[in-house]
Amino acid sequence: MAAGGGGRNAPPGSGPRDGMRRDGGTEPYWSRPECRVWTVMLLLGTCLLYCARVTVPICAVALSSYFDWDKKQFGVVLSSFFWGYCLTQIVGGHISDQIGGEKVLLLSASAWGLLTVLTPLLTHITSAHLVFMTSSRFLMGLLQGVYFPSLASLLSQRVRESERAFTYSTVGTGSQFGTLLIGGAGSLLLDWYGWESVFYFSGLLTLLWVYCTCKYLLSEKELTIPMNYLTRGLSVPKQTKVPWKQLFRKAPIWAVIIAQLSTASTFFTLLSWLPTFFKETFPDSKGWVFNVVPWLVAIPASLFSGFLSDHLISQGYRTITIRKFMQVIGSGVSSIFALCLGQTSSFCKAIVFASASVGLQTFNHSGISVNVQDLAPSCAGLLFGVANTGGALLGVICVYLAGYLIETTGSWISVFNLVAAVNSIGLCTFLLFGEAQRVDTDSVYVDL
Question: What's the pTM value of the predicted model, to 2 decimals?
Answer without folding.
Answer: 0.70
